[in-house]
Amino acid sequence: MQAEPVLVLGLIEACRAVITANTDHLCALDCAIGDGDHGSNMQRGFEAVSAQGAVLSNLPFPDAVEKIGMTLVMNVGGAAGPLYGTLLMEIGRELRARDGIDDFPIVLKKAIDAVARRGRSHAGDKTLLDVLYPVQDALAQSSTLIDVARRAELSADLTAAMKAMRGRASYLGDRSIGHVDPGASSCALLTTAICHYFGENHRI
């Protein structure tokens, strides 16, 4: 599965741009229940990915996705680096074992389960999993890209009513209720950016 250079570069730029535009917002969310650096950590990670764009765009698509995951692990601080990195590395590995992406919902489910194991967390714990699982469900139901993006955004908003069970936010107990999880928010932003990119470029 050879990557189309424009596709890889376009996806990288779409993700970098949405994180850059929302860095302060993500930091503000994290200030309420965490260390306050989620936005800057994510921005650093995607700037590092963007710097490797020329190399990544010439790799087979699964290899490019896996390498992006490795780059995020090495450049994003806190829990987000290992979690996002695991997600992308597992997607890359699963895609490499397949001939196409027709069964991408299955690929994504396996990758999300790997993230859950890595973070020892579950849906409902107020993490990015609370966006990833609904997104996977929407894709499995062949929802439109617009509906997938809306599902991601709604799912992130719903984390405000949850009590954090993992990470620094869990130390707050009930005081974490009422705040959107920053990891869920960044996940929704990235999902929406990817959906918009594919929709605008008529790639799926």
TrEMBL record:
Gene Ontology biological process terms, A to Z: glycerol catabolic process
Annotated DhaL domain residues: 6-196
GO MF term set: glycerone kinase activity
UniProt cross-references to InterPro entries, sorted A to Z: DhaK_L_YcgS, DhaL_dom, DhaL_dom_sf, Dihydroxyacetone_Kinase
SUPFAM superfamilies documented for this protein: DhaL-like (SSF101473)
Keyword Phosphoprotein recorded: no
A cellular component term, taken from the record's GO annotations: cytosol
The keyword Transferase is annotated on this UniProt entry: yes
Name the UniProt record assigns to this protein: Dihydroxyacetone kinase, C-terminal domain
Organism this protein belongs to: Rhizobium mongolense subsp. loessense
The organism's taxonomic lineage, starting at the top: Bacteria, Pseudomonadati, Pseudomonadota, Alphaproteobacteria, Hyphomicrobiales
